[in-house]
Amino acid sequence: MTLYQSIAVLGSLGVVSGIVLAVSFSRLKVEDDPLVEEILQALPDINCGACGYASCHAYAELVAEGKAPADMCAPGGPETEEKIIRIKGGDLSSEKKIPKNAVVHCKPQKRIFSAGYCGIETCSAANISGAGLLCRFGCLGFGDCLAACPFDAIKINSSGAAEVIPEKCTACGLCVRSCPRDIILMVDYNDGRASYVGCSNTQEGKNTRKVCGSGCIACGLCVKRAPEGTFVLEDSLARVEHSGGEINVEEIKCPTGCIYESVEKTKN
Amino acid sequence: MKDKKTKEKKIKLNIIPAPHIGGSMSTGKMMRLTLLALLFPCFGAVYFFGVRVIYLFLCCISASLISEYAALKMRKAPLSTESFSSAAVTGVILALILPPGFPLWAAFIGAVFAILIVKHVFGGLGKNIFNPALMGRAFLAAAFPLIITQYAMTPRSLPYGLSPGLHSDAVSEATPLNRIKFEEKTPGSSFYIPYLLGERKGSAGETSGILILIGLAVLLLSGAADWRLPLSYFTSIAVFSGILWLFAPDKFINPIFTLLLGGVFLGGTYMVTDPVTTPASPKGKLVFGIGSGFLTVLIRTFSGYPEGVMFAILLMNAAVPLIERYTSPRIYGT
Amino acid sequence: MGIGIKPLTNKETARFEPIQNLPVPEEVILYTSQHIGAPSEVIVEKKDTVRKGQLIASPKGGCSAALHSSIAGVVRDISKVNMCGGRSGKAVTIKKEKVQEQEKDFMKPLSSPDADKIIKRIADAGIVGMGGAGFPTHVKIVPPKPVDIAFLNGCECEPFLTADERVMTEYNKKVVEGFALLKKATGAEKGIIGIEDDKPVAIEKITEAAAACDDIEVKILEKIYPQGYEKMLITNTTGRTIPPGKLPFDVGVTVHNASTCLAVAEAVFEGKPLIERVVTVSGECLPHPVNYRVPLGMPVSEVLRYSISGISKMGEFDVYMGGPMMGVSLDSLDYGILKTTSGIIVQRPFFRKQAPCVKCGRCVDTCPMGLCPQRLNMFYEGRDFGSMSEAGLENCMECGCCSYECPSEICLTERFKEAKINL
Questions:
Q1: How confident is the model at residue B137 (pLDDT cuts 50, 70, 90)?
Q2: Cα separations in angstroms, C99 against C56, C102, C336
Q3: Cβ separation of A236 and C80 shorter than 8 Å?
Q4: C385 CA to chain A: closest CA distance, Å?
Q5: pLDDT for A82
Q6: Whole-angstrom Cα distance, residue C365 to residue B324?
Q7: C-alpha span between C23 and C56 (Å, rounded)
Q8: Shortest CA distance to C15 belongs to which of C198, C155, C196?
Q9: pLDDT for residue B305
Q10: Confidence (pTM)
Q11: Which of B15, B16, B20 to probe the A interface (max A CBs under 10 A)?
Q12: B residues 248-287 near C, CB within 8 Å?
């Protein structure tokens, strides 16, 4: 008898709660825009935050409402933009966008340390004291960018400095924000290649020489030898103004060898 | 000039984050001091219950150390001396709160549970929510309820005529608290001194109040434990049981027996002072002590259990995040 | 609110060492950015000959400070060089000339200046707060709100450091005079000199000198770290508390360092710009701790040369500028002395073990700002900087008390510094 009683009580309780749930589900249902769902499908859905919104979903919602432009997704690049515009039924812009990649502007042969470091092993903490690295502009190599990169596109190379793997980089810009020394910059990749100066030291040549064997000493040879307008010398540091195929790194013969060419291997 | 330069090469400079000096207390030292303070009740346990207790200690300590090692290896965490000494502390405390004749295999299981489940599942040293030793004991009480009540041993008599003659009426296997609770036999005031010295039935290390208080003095004077916790705990027990006793002296145990009997001294000295499972803020420490004291009296008086120290402290352990939230100090200038 | 810490003072040895002069160094490195605010602008050229006390860099903008040559010599180099603390900045390197001219080229002494003249002179002399922050003094004494109390900070609470104490003992009259000038320039009604009770000689000397002024009162404070921090000092003497994010002038107080007061007195009455300061050279690795009067920009290695001779030159060292609680480790001994360098300490490095936090709560007990460093650290370990900010991270003044007390030797202060940057 007790058995049936308990079955009856609990059973009816279950049925009642089920009905309440079913009613509230249908009453309180939030209408989801199918457009949002579709746009979300087109996005990489990695929630990297490069667009400046909290998640891919948040961005997709704003795009669907027309409150955000379609070209904010850096990892997706032009392809995603094209897809989103197709979904929304707009016109494709005719101008061709130059793909970008992040590049660490410090590629030393050897990093020189004058003291040991026993502090916290992150770049942002090490930057407070300099971590004993003689160059005040060089890569600290504790990998804050590595931790920030959602695509595993950064590695620490043999000299202990960070290096971007161009074919994995999606130009989301998270590493640029994470670097306390601001030495990661976005660079134009024309036909999958880009030239850059692997140094960020703005000290005068003789002081740069003291802290690194392969830093830019601001001799100005690159400005003279390369086609005009490709290199500029600013604040004792050479900078590539205009990247692309027209620069021949071999021809410039940089005395400290700090001009590099980064080639993107074809994506499979 | 050249000579000077080569000499300077031998100097290796280091970049050290400020401050460049440190205080005298270290976590390892805290653990060592706790182990030192634990020696006193251990001596008491061996004196009153004989060599059998030493096996219990060795069993609990080795079980904790082995499971600590295994856990650290599994978690790929560094094998630090701090972790091992804290595991040893857990082992000793667990042995102290078990009945002296407790089977070794069960004690082993309790210690393994304390370290693996209570400590390392939550993240190891410094991260556990509950006191591992107490949780180990609670686990054993739940898993083997019969064993934990059966293995009480009759203590050795005190010398110099201090013994109250316990043996003459030691028919019952019960501890004094059990007798008060279930047989309603309240001891007379002549039992104060022998009970303080330790001649009574109970778990291995809880009987000798005087030795535990020496341990407490070691902890407090060396700065290994915070004085607020034991002080507020003992005071709150005395106050709450005193209120009840004044209300109905024949119905409730007087405050002196409440403090002397059971595991109040042991709990107040080694478990309430465990830094990991108690609040970090000064006010929170007072709240924790008062709360544990209140719950101890409440459980002892109004529940089916004769003893309440263990559950009181475990319940308060669970309340620590809440206490910390409401007792954090006032920020300067606000 | 916590109470701070009572570290071993280690002052007993350098406390009674009179201030000594050092020979003129071969070379000085004068950084254009050794104060809070914009770097000053170099006005000399390479290979120029400069006199001792000659202006070599003028202030740029409102919050900046002038810079003078501390020796007579030739400008060898003007370039961006490495500075201590992982920074890099423009510096003027001056090479010594054999004949050192005397101080005849300094500014004209003022006999009884009014407030405007004092402010002008302080700006011309390039005086900045010499306690550590390096805030330009001529900006500090013209606060945007009226101030009623001027404070002389005689609490040198960091262990090892004795520079201010020696200055107060040996130049008691000048320090009080300089303080009176600052008080006059600020327009404060009252002056308070706060000295910690472990400096009986300095207290006696300063009280003696302050007896001449009716509106200057000497207050003796408990010896505790961080008693010398503006906020602690103001609260412990006047009872006023500075709300988060506010500065002392918001509650009507300005605070000056003892060495700053000496520099002001010398600038006004002798016309001498800020070209030297008193530096304590101490530490457990040095057999004879001393107090030196050092020309600004003198390389650390030169300063140490006179006291390092007795020690073994082998092994690992931790050399830092400032006191052991806040000092900045040097990665090279070629850096020049700054206007804000109160000490150079040489000791064996103290490597922190960084064991897990056991929540003992010592840090909470000690934090003078009433924060819970243990809780902040918990958030830090999850890299949750937002929660740290909610728990009051911005109030942390990086005094180092929590790191000092931590039995697990976690470098809490460094972690909080990093979190502040990442906010």
A1: very high
A2: 19, 9, 22
A3: yes
A4: 13
A5: 82
A6: 14
A7: 22
A8: C198
A9: 82
A10: 0.89
A11: B15
A12: 275-276, 278-282, 285
Q: Residues 6 or more apart from B290 whose CB is under 8 A from it?
A: B232, B233, B235, B236
HSE value, Cβ hemisphere, 13 Å, CA-based, for B85:
17
pLDDT band at B4; cut points 50, 70, 90 = very low
**Mean of per-residue pLDDT scores for chain C:** 88
The mean of the pLDDT values for chain A is 84
Across the interface, whether the CB atoms of C372 and B17 are under 8 A apart is answered: no
Q: Pull the structure tokens for residue C103.
A: 């101080």
Q: How many domains does chain C divide into?
A: 2
Q: Do C2 and C399 contact (CB within 8 A), yes or no?
A: no
Query: How many residues in chain B?
Result: 334
What ranges make up the beta strands (E) of chain B?
Answer: 11-15
User: Collapsing DSSP states into helix, strand and coil, what is residue C310?
Assistant: coil
CB neighbour burial string for A65-102, b if at least 16 within 10 angstroms, e if fewer: eeebebbbbbbbbeebbbbbbebeeeeeeeeeeebbbb
What order do you get walking across the sheet with C253-257 strand by strand? C216-221, C190-196, C149-154, C253-257
Instruction: Flag if B15 and A130 touch (Cβ within 8 Å).
Output: yes
What count of CB pairs under 8 Å joins A to B?
Answer: 27
Contact between residue C29 and residue C336 where contact means Cβ atoms under 8 Å apart: yes
Inter-chain contacts counted by CB atoms under 8 A, chains A and C: 70
| Domain hosting residue A156, numbered range | 100-263
Give domain status of residue C344, yes or no: yes
The answer, for C241 touching chain B at a CB cutoff of 8 Å, is yes
From residue A81, give the alpha-carbon distance in Å to each of A69, A151, A170, C257, C378: 9, 20, 14, 61, 41
A151–chain B Cβ distance below 8 A for any pair: no
Structure token digits, residue A201:
């030291």
Residue C149: its H or E element = strand C149-154
Nearest CA in chain A to B11: A115
Asked if residue C129 is part of any domain, the answer here is yes
User: For residue C93, is it within any domain?
Assistant: no
Looking at the DSSP bridge assignments, the partners of residue C253 are C149
Beta bridge partners of A148: none
For residue B28, what are its two tokens? 């390892």
Q: Are residues A111 and A179 in the same domain?
A: yes
What is the value of ipTM here, to two decimals?
Answer: 0.87
Residue B3: band (very low, low, confident or very high) from pLDDT cuts 50, 70, 90: very low
Same domain, yes or no, for C271 and C417? no
**C421/A180 touch (CB, cutoff 8 Å), yes or no:** yes
Contact C22, C290 (CB under 8 A): no
C338, C378: one domain: no
Q: A70 and A112: one domain?
A: no
State pLDDT tens for residues C6-53: 776 666 678 888 999 988 899 999 999 888 888 999 999 998 888 888
CATH number of the domain residue A135 falls in: 3.30.70.20
Closest CA to C194 of C167, C143, C230, C163: C230
CA A90 to chain centre: 28
pLDDT range class, residue C101, cuts 50, 70, 90: low
Tokens of A111: 């990093």
Q: Does B126 touch chain C (CB under 8 A)?
A: yes
Which residues on C lie below 8 Å from A180 (Cβ)?
Answer: 421
